[in-house]
Amino acid sequence: MTRVWMPCGYYHQDYAKDQGWWQTPVIKGKMILLLLIVFVVFPLVLDEYWLGVAIMIGYTALGALGVQLLIGYAGLITLGHAAFIAVGAYTSTILILRFPWPQFIIDWGLAYPISIIVAAIVAGLWSVLFGLPSARVKGFYLILTTMAAHFITVDFILTQYVSRIGGRGQAFSLPPGTIKIGPWFIDSDVKVYLVMITLLTLMVMIMANLLRTRVGRAWVAIRDNDIAAETLGINIVWYKLLNFFVAGFIGGIAGAFWIANLAALSPEHFPWFWSLWLVGVILIGGAGIDGAIFGSIFMVVVMELLQIAAIPLSDYWPKLMINFAFLKEMAFGLAICAFLIYEPRGLSYRWWQAKNYFNLWPFSY
Amino acid sequence: MELFFMTLTTGIMVGGIYALVALGWVLIYKCSGVLNLAMGELTLFGAYVTIYFYLMGVPFIVCIFFTLLIGIVLGILVERIFLDKLIGEPILAIIMVTVGLSFFFKGLIGFIWGTDTRVFTPAIFSLKPFTIGFLKISTVYFWSFVLAIVLFLVFVAFFKYTRWGLSMQATADDETAALSLGVSARFVYAASWAIAFMAAGVGGALLGNINGVNISIGYLGLLVLPAVVLGGLNSVPGAIVGGLIIGVLQNFAGTYLDAYFPGGVKEIFPFAFMTVFLLFIPYGFWGWVKIERM
Fold it and tell me: What fold does the segment set B2-280 form as a domain?
């Protein structure tokens, strides 16, 4: 668990301490500072544009957390995670717009929070349904079934049936003021940002806690060698399905959050591209929960910078801006290839190296 | 009954093209163990290169020849630049490099040629169907099928009878033994990628003939994945059988299931079928069954 070398003179005297989140006062201080910055300073300081970027980072990170859980902790390679995000988004929207809520729930603004939880559970169950083949296949074959899950869910069920509920084109519009948590309408970027950062913190906490329990250790055992894990008495089918459920759950939360930032929901928000993008994010980010977050920050910020760089250049070559979506895909593809070839351990490894360097500085031998 | 046979023949004709593309996939997997998810973009590339030359007024056969040439060059480049460095890495890394490549190619193609559908004008094959007995066969399907099968046979013959092909077979069978006999593994990897690019490129050109060339050809190229799973990942006969079965199933789904599930059932059905199929026979018809031990 310890991913940082302890400073001189610190020893753990019991197991609980060894598994603790914030092991020294310095780390505790740093983390509280970080929480203060993301919860208080960012909403006050950032302007509209960078808040948008931060929301995008949070959404990507919420999706990538689920992918990290599947790929990074249980070795279940998935290329269809956007499908579960889409299921979450659609469940939440349908609940908000169509469900006959009692009046007091609407008055108290509970409809959206309840719909987030229901959406997460539905997405988790949907994920288990497509995780069932993992009982029998793994590796490349599992990739194919998750891919199929994406095509079946998004390109067929959602596009052809669900998005036609109540007439085409209007049923899933979410005008500002539809989404309400308690007394607050989620209608400005700051509020969306606060919802995002709350959900993200919660999910990170849930995931980090799960990973240091029996469940998390079982997942890691399955990832490292599933046959050995089975001989150790771990019910691998059950734990794999549980992993799919939790990953789908987090995906559902991501989807249900994302509708707060949308004016209308449509299946085009969840292309297959997005599933692959999430896997790319964790490959670039590297191992662990921090890997998922670093990867999201890196990818979103690099894409924004690319756009900023492309705007002045497009005066000379207008095609650059018109076809920017394609440029983005090219950059993403190259980034994945470059990271896999030159830094397969990702950004979180670099971060770990840097931290240790300064921990031991100036006597790093 | 006529509808049944027409669906069947159309399916077989399209399946022939899938079989050609699937052959490229299987060759890469056999020779270098790379599970390639960029096949869709390789077909896309072939379709666009061919139509680019064709619209410049080059005869179709010469266009195909150019596609083959550019396929060789690109295949060798891709192998040398990206996949050569990843030998021995975990499966996820290799698969994701091919995903990265697919993004790169899709972006590149979109950047150069945009998103409009292009059509082969003047049409190469007439759209008029001809009849054999009671069967009506559309000319474009027929000639695409013939061309695909001829190329398939050429590649198989290359694989079976030439010295280079034999060295590829040897590497696929036992890499260490092949290395000790003086077969250059790097040459074999490059050759397998070159062949895959050529096969997929021509497949894309033929698919583009049928419906016009746009980004969705890449999706058709992805259909080789169900095809190779059906036939077994490392089986050349499996590729042709899998391709034909997927083509036929797809067209039957489009003809018969569309009434019950309106919408895109034709596109989805091969993948749904593959998911169920994997639950029962994960190694396909002729794939090697891997028995895992601790």
Answer: ABC transporter involved in vitamin B12 uptake, BtuC (1.10.3470)
Long-range contact pairs involving A349-356 (C-beta distance under 8 Å, separation at least 24): A349/A286, A349/A287, A350/A286, A351/A290, A351/A294, A352/A3, A352/A4, A355/A4, A356/A4, A356/A5
Residue pLDDT, tens place only, B39-90 = 888 888 888 988 888 888 888 889 888 999 999 999 899 888 888 888 777 7
Rounded CA separation A150/A348 (Å): 28
pTM of the complete model: 0.89
Is ipTM beyond 0.95?
no
Residue contact A329–B107, C-beta within 8 A: yes
| CB contact (8 A) between residue A227 and residue B293 | yes
**Residues in B touching A314 (Cβ below 8 Å):** none
A228: region left, alpha or beta (phi > 0 left; psi from -120 to 50 alpha): alpha
| DSSP code at position B258 | G
Q: d(Cα B116, Cα B83) in Å, to the nearest integer?
A: 32
Let me know if A207 is exposed, middle or buried by CB neighbors in 10 A (0-12, 13-18, 19+): buried
Q: pLDDT digits over B11-22, tens only?
A: 898 898 889 889
Q: Looking at the complex, report in whole angstroms how far the Cα of residue A126 sits from the nearest Cα belonging to chain B.
A: 15
Q: Which amino acid is at A255?
A: G
Answer whether B290 touches A (CB < 8 Å). Answer: no
Q: CB–CB of B282 and A137 under 8 A? A: yes
Q: Which residue in B has a C-alpha nearest to residue A275's C-alpha?
A: B99
Distance CA A293, CA A197 (A): 12
For chain B, give every domain's residue range: 2-280
Q: How confident is the model at residue A365 (pLDDT cuts 50, 70, 90)?
A: low
Contacts with B, A 228-257, CB within 8 Å: 228, 231
Q: Which residue has the higher pLDDT, A33 or B114?
A: A33
pLDDT value at residue A17? 79
CB contact under 8 A, A133 and B99: no
pLDDT at A364: 62
Kindly state the percentage of chain B with pLDDT values over 70: 99
DSSP-derived 3-state class of residue A197: helix
A283 touches chain B (CB under 8 A): yes
Whether residue B240 contacts residue B23, with contact meaning beta carbons closer than 8 Å, is answered with yes
The pLDDT assigned to A167 comes to: 63
Structure tokens at B140: 């474009």
State residue A83's pLDDT score.
94
Contacts of A319 in chain B (CB under 8 A): 111
A297 pLDDT exceeds 90? yes
Tokens for A302, please give them.
Answer: 């690099």
Contact at CB, B96 and A149, closer than 8 angstroms = no
Long-range CB pairs of B260-269 (<8 Å, 24+ gap) are B261/A160, B262/A160, B263/A156, B263/A159, B263/A160, B263/A161, B264/A155, B264/A156, B264/A159, B264/A160, B265/A156, B267/A151, B267/A155, B267/A156, B267/B219, B268/A151, B268/A152, B268/A155, B268/A156
